[in-house]
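for the writeup, i need someone to sanity check this before i put it in the appendix. the sequnce is what the collaborator sent (i think, or maybe the updated version? ugh). structure was predicted straight from it, no edits. if anything looks off just tell me and ill rerun, i have time this weekend
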Amino acid sequence: MTNLELIFTMLEEEQTRIEAVKQDAQGFEENKDAAIEGGTAAGAARDAFEQRTGDKVVSDQNFKQQIEAANQQKKLIEKKEEE
């Protein structure tokens, strides 16, 4: 996950929390509505960012790839230390 993906995910989560508190959401359906509103707001912000910069926020990176890359780097370092 890139920093931008993390930022917009955090924005969606915070907006959802704010909506849930503002609506005094109780139960699944009310919280679902708050989540939809939070996601819609973050989606609009992401669209505006992408339009303004011309860059995409969503990438093909994922945590599994980052772990694999880190493990490969660690193996290379250990191999060099053994030599």
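The chain has a mean pLDDT of 91. Residues 3-82 form one domain.
thx in advance!!
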